[in-house]
Amino acid sequence: MSIPNSGAVVGLIGLPGSIPFLLSQVTIKVLDNEGHLVQETVSNKQGLYFLHQIPAGSYTLLFEHENYLPVSKSVTIPPLSIQSINVELQPRTSLVTGVVTWEITNQPITDVTILIRNGIIPISRLTTDQNGKFEVQLPVGDYNVDCYKPGYFRQSAEVSLVENEITEIDIQMQAASGIAIGVVTYKSENSTIPKPLENVEVQLLADEQIVASTRTNTIGLYIFNDLELDLNSNNNTTEYILKFNKDGYQTKTYPLKLTHLFSTSVSIQNINLEKNAP
Fold it and tell me: Which CATH homologous superfamily contains domain 93-173?
């Protein structure tokens, strides 16, 4: 049933200066001069609200959401008219502080990228200081905190923020590791096709010291797992030397470089050994 000489109010609700980052599920109430509820609605996914069939007169619009400070607006609705009122809501905020450390030594990790998101929506990005600390003021709500740094596995945490409270989260990161893998082959006198060479001793050297050794299997495969990375290197690279030995074959050495750009660094080094001269 329509109300004679009624009007309507329409508008968008968003964050300060952030339209079109608009807010859904905001309750909008129409109150008369005595504070009585005349009508109410909820903003949709696009932050849009629409109130109609409001008797002509003066009212107060009250905008409410549990994560934002309430806002009230005065409005006069003439007969047979539509008033447009857009509103910005200020978030209720909470302080988040934290420290990022290496899980083995508990030493703070500097320059860790901290990405704070609400679901898939990025909210804030910052980095840890020289003490591994970070601090940010955020609207109340639930967030995921993702930590990234070359040479470490990504680490995530969940946090729920309450208004006017300080939330502390301590995050430990696991250092990345390296993998060296390859196949050792040789060429026989009667064939140009490389054949796998088993039982080749493969040594891994750092600073001219043997840090690991293995032997190739029946298909010439060798592998080194969980290699330590030098996370203090200036170029995000750890360098080793691979040394290949087998009786009757020439000894060969090759440089091995493992980068720290990903959580696990893999280097593939296939080698062809030549037989010793008769």
Answer: Immunoglobulins (2.60.40.10)
